[in-house]
Amino acid sequence: MNDIDAWVWWLVGAAALGIPLVVTAMPEFGMFAVGAVAAAAVAGLGFGAVAQVLSFVVVSVALIAVVRPIAYRHRTERPQLATGIDALKGRQAVVLERVDGSGGRIKLAGEVWSARSLDTGRAYEAGEEVDVVDIEGATAIIM
Fold first, then answer.
1. What is the DSSP letter of 65?
2. Residue 88: is its pLDDT beyond 80?
3. Which of 52, 76, 97, 131 is the S-S candidate for 105 at Cβ 3.0 to 4.6 Å?
């Protein structure tokens, strides 16, 4: 055991840290593994144990301090591309059949939709362009 160089032990440690990374899907283990690879490089260059441990700690902590907040932000952000009914809100439509507070028909995104007016006292005649403000079930709410 004394014949094995320190850099080999650091690489064994990096591989050992890769196992819980795969099993638990916790990226912190991967960051520690990268720190162990950095320590192996320092050991391979001939530096002592203090420099090796210091490089392990510095690289691991730096990765956790920088990468973890970025990953958290990407995980919690909503997608920039609106899909489904969210993509239809705010679009313009053309009235096909008179639309009032009780109902009617519009053409929205190439499809015929049932619609009703947001303002129950307002009616829209065929051919008018309207804005879709919300979707409730299969009914577009327009104004």
1. H
2. yes
3. 97
